Amino acid sequence: MFSLQTIFGKGDKFYGLLEASAAAAHESTRALVELLQAPAGQRSLDKFKLSRQLEKELSAKISQELVNTFVTALEPEDIEALNSVLYKIPKTVEKFAERFIIASERIGDVDFVSRAIMLEKSCEVIEQMVGLLRKGINMEATKGLNDKMQAIEAEADRLILEMYRDSYTRETDPMRYLILKDMFEILEKAIDRCRDVGNVIYQIVLKNS
C-alpha cells in the first residue's frame, strides 16, 4: 500500500496523487480475487477497508490541492473528473466483498473468480493509463490501452450475462435468486467504473492532443 507522505516531491503532485489513487483501486481488485479464493475461515475485509480509506484520503487531498493550486499540468475539471471515477472503484469492490461474505453460505457454489480476475485486469489497464499522463499526451498508446479496456469490459459483460442466464433458468430459490442478482449487478457496476476511468482519460488525451 501507499502513504500520502511518499507521493510528493516527484514531478507534478497531481500525477502522483492520481497514480496512487489508481494503484489503490487496483489493490482492491487484487484483494477481491484473494478473498474469493480463500477458505471461508480466512476471509477478511481488512484490505478493502484499507484501500477504500486510502482512496478516500487521496480524493480529499486532490480536491483540496485543486483549491490551493493555480497552475496544474492538467485542467482542474479533468483532474476532478478522474478523481471522482477512481474513487468509486474501491467503494464498489468493497460493497461486493461485504455482500459475498454475508451471503457466502447461500451462494458458495457460484464461481465469481473468473469475473473478478477480469475486473482486476481492468484495473491493471487503467493504472497503466493513469501512469501515461505523466509522460505527456500519447494518443496512440492511450487509445491502445482504452481499446484493451473496452475489450475486457465486453468480455466481462459476457461472463456476467452467462451468470444471469444460469440463474434465470436454474435457480428455484427466490431469496437466493435475489441475492445473486444483487451481486451480479454490483460486480457489473465495478467493471463499468473501470470503463468510465478509461473513457475519462481518453477524453483528456483527445482534448489535449
> Do you know the CATH topology?
Methane Monooxygenase Hydroxylase, Chain G, domain 1
Distance between the termini: 33 Å
In round numbers, the mean pLDDT is: 87
Write the CATH homologous superfamily: Phosphate transport system protein phou homolog 2, domain 2
| Element string (H = helix, E = strand) | HHHHHH
Q: So, CATH architecture?
A: Up-down Bundle
Total helical elements: 6
The dominant shape is globular
> What count of domains describes the coordinates?
1
What is the tally of beta strands?
0
Point out poorly predicted stretches.
1-11
Name the structural class. mainly alpha
Overall helicity = over 70%
Largest sheet: none
The CATH class, by name, is Mainly Alpha
What is the gyration radius calculated from CA atoms? 18 Å
Beta-sheet strand percentage? under 5%
In words, what does this structure look like?
The chain is mainly alpha-helical and 209 residues long. The protein has a single domain, classed as Phosphate transport system protein phou homolog 2, domain 2 (Methane Monooxygenase Hydroxylase, Chain G, domain 1), CATH 1.20.58.220. The chain is built from six helices and no strands. The chain has helices at 13-37, 46-68, 76-107, 113-133, 139-170, 174-208. Helix 1 runs antiparallel to helix 4 (113-133), helix 3 runs antiparallel to helix 6 (174-208) and helix 4 runs antiparallel to helix 5. It is globular, with a radius of gyration of 18 Å. The two termini are 33 Å apart. Residues 1-11 have low confidence and may be disordered.
